[in-house]
Amino acid sequence: MKMEIENLTFSYGSHKVLKELTFTVAEGELLCILGPNGVGKSTLFRCLLGLQRGWRGDIRIDGQDIRGLSARRAARYLAYIPQYSSPVFSYTVFQMVLMGTTSQMGVFSSPGKKEEARSLAALETLGIGYLKDKRIGEISGGERQLVLIARAIAQDAQLLIMDEPTANLDYGNQVRVMQVVRELAHSGYSIVMSTHNPDQAFLYGTRVLMLKDGAVISQGTPREALTEEVLRRAYGVEIGIHTFSEGNEVYHLCVPKARLEEKNLKEEKE
Description:
By secondary structure, the chain is of the alpha/beta class. The chain is about 35% helix and about 30% strand. The chain is built from ten helices and twelve strands. It starts with a strand and ends with a helix. The mean pLDDT is about 90.
C-alpha cells in the first residue's frame, strides 16, 4: 500500500504549522519522521489520519484522495498506534486486541469468531499469544506497546502510523518493539513512525523525513538524510556520525561532538 503526500500545508490561524510537505510511503517501507519538539509531527499525523480538517494539498492512499473516504473506509487502510500510556480499564490483552476489529463492523454488531481468530493471529504474529488472558495492567510497558501494535494488525490495515512507539520504554523494551516494527515492514506493511532518536532511524528505518519549523529540510535513506549538518541544523547541537562494521553489517552511530572533543583532549594529555 502506498501513501502519497503532496504540498501538505496546515495553519492554526495565521501560524503556519506544516509548510508544503511532499513525500511518499511505499509498500514495505519504514519511514522515520524526526525533528525537534513542536515541529508539527502530531499535526501531520492528525492530517494523515483524517482527524484534522482545513489542510491544503493532497493526501492519497493507493491513488485515492482521503477527503473522499469515510472514517470506516479509512480504517481499512490506516491504523494508529499511540505512545505508551497507562491503562484506565482492566481489559484483558485479548479484549484490547479484539477492539481493533470493530472499525470494520456495523454500529450494532459485535465481534464474532472471524474477528476473534484475527485477533489471536495478530497476537501470535508478534509472539505474545501467551499474554492473551493477562490483564493489560499486569504486563510490562514493552508488552503493552506490542499489544497496541497487535490491535492495529487485527484492524487489518496495511498502513501503520506510529507515534513514538518506544517512548518511556527501557532500553531492552525499545529494542524488542523496534525489532517487531522492522519485521512488520519486511512483511509488507507500510509504516510511518515518529522518533526523537536518530540512531533508531539508522538501525531500523528505510527512509527518513527530517522536519524543522514545519518544513522538510532533508529526506532520503537514513545515510542520505541524516548528515552531521542536517542534525546540527535540526537540533542546534554538533553531532558526529561514526561508522563501524560488524561482520557484513555496517552501522552508524550519533555521538555529541563535545563528548568527542573531551575524549581527544584526554588522549592528547596522556
